[in-house]
Amino acid sequence: MAIYAFEGKSPKIGKSSFVPESADIIGDVTIGEACFIGVGARIRGDYGTVIIGDRTSVQENVVIHAREGDITVVGSQVQLGHGCLLHNCTVRDFAVIGLGAIISDYAVIGEWAIIGEGAVVRGEVPAGAIAVGIPARVVGKVTDAQRREWLVYKNLYAELASRRYPAGLKRIG
User: Fold this and answer.
1) What pLDDT was estimated at residue 1?
2) What are phi and psi of 7, to 5 degrees?
3) What average pLDDT values come out for the chain (173 residues) when binned by 10 residues?
4) Residue 89, domain CATH
5) Which of 23, 75, 154, 171 sits at a 20 to 30 Å CA gap from 14?
């Protein structure tokens, strides 16, 4: 894994989290326990701060950054879909960010909110809301069935990070 100190600030990564060789973690970054960081993820705390809670999945090619002197916060049990981009924003616990979505400066994603694939969020999405589109707009509410379904995936990624990848991933070439 490519973990870099930057100007005296070093990443702090939970012992039960998984970070592959091809991910870059730079500077003032904190990653909680049982987090899954996918290949190609870039998490830059070079001149801002990035904090990621426990049991969060940062999937392949996700980019997370913060403005100078500012912060990007990703809560616990969050699912960040492949290729999404988070910049200087807050994503609260249990939220789901769809593939390729962009969560822009100062946006706030509420607890258990779901952001659709490719959406662009520039403001606030309330807790338990489903938002889609460019710009993203609320189109519904998260159901109990959706919460149960997403918990299955969240638990799967936490297990991948803390148990299955450390035991089963073997470089062969």
Assistant:
1) 62
2) 50, 45
3) 92 97 97 97 97 98 96 98 98 98 98 98 98 98 96 93 93 89
4) 2.160.10.10
5) 171
The residue behind tokens 């070079």 is 46
CA pair distance 31, 53, nearest whole angstrom = 6
Segments forming the whole domain that contains residue 95: 2-168
Beta bridge pairs of residue 36: 18, 57
Three-state SS for 57?
strand
pTM of the prediction? 0.96
Q: Domain count of the chain?
A: 1
Residue 173 lies in a domain: no
Structure tokens at 88: 């200087």
* C-alpha to C-alpha distance for 96 and 111, rounded to whole angstroms: 9
**Dihedrals φ, ψ of 78, to 5°?**
-95, 145
Cα-to-chain-centroid distance, residue 75:
8
